[in-house]
Write a structure and sequence with these properties.
The chain is an alpha/beta fold and about 130 residues long. The protein contains three helices and five strands. Helix content is about 35%, strand content about 15%. α2 packs parallel to α3. The termini are far apart.
Length: about 130
């Protein structure tokens, strides 16, 4: 008999097709879109995130380390020298003048940060 039996091949292909049909919708849920939101999603805690905090007295903290505006550029440049994902989250007190926040954002951008996220709190009724 010189024919090839394709029945096992068809069985394997049907099983793989069913597996891909079930797993494909699960893979497309993580689309990253930068839209302004009132509600915020939680941050993935598997990686170390850099959080830049500006207090009401204009003190700047990178995670928990206090620094001046002039040294922020050099610190961020050194941190992101060997990283692929260049992402910083910014928390600013609501009483800080807008101009100062923009100055800080400018220093962050000059340091080569690709993504700058703003951390907000949900409204009182949403907590």
């Amino acid at each position: 008999m010189s024919e090839i039996n394709v029945t096992p091949f068809v069985d394997v292909m049907l099983v793989l097709l069913i597996i891909f049909m079930v797993t494909a919708p699960m893979l497309s849920m993580g689309i990253d879109v930068n839209l302004p939101k009132v509600k915020s999603k939680s941050v993935d805690v598997t990686e170390e995130k850099l959080v830049l905090t500006i207090t009401e007295t204009r003190e700047i903290y990178l995670n928990k380390n206090k620094m001046q505006l002039g040294e922020l550029y050099y610190k961020l440049e050194a941190i992101f020298a060997n990283r692929i994902d260049r992402e910083v989250f910014l928390r600013a007190d609501r009483s800080v003048p807008y101009g100062f926040v923009v100055q800080v954002m400018s220093e962050v951008r000059k340091a080569g940060v690709d993504k700058l996220g703003l951390i907000t709190e949900p409204p009182e009724g949403m907590k």
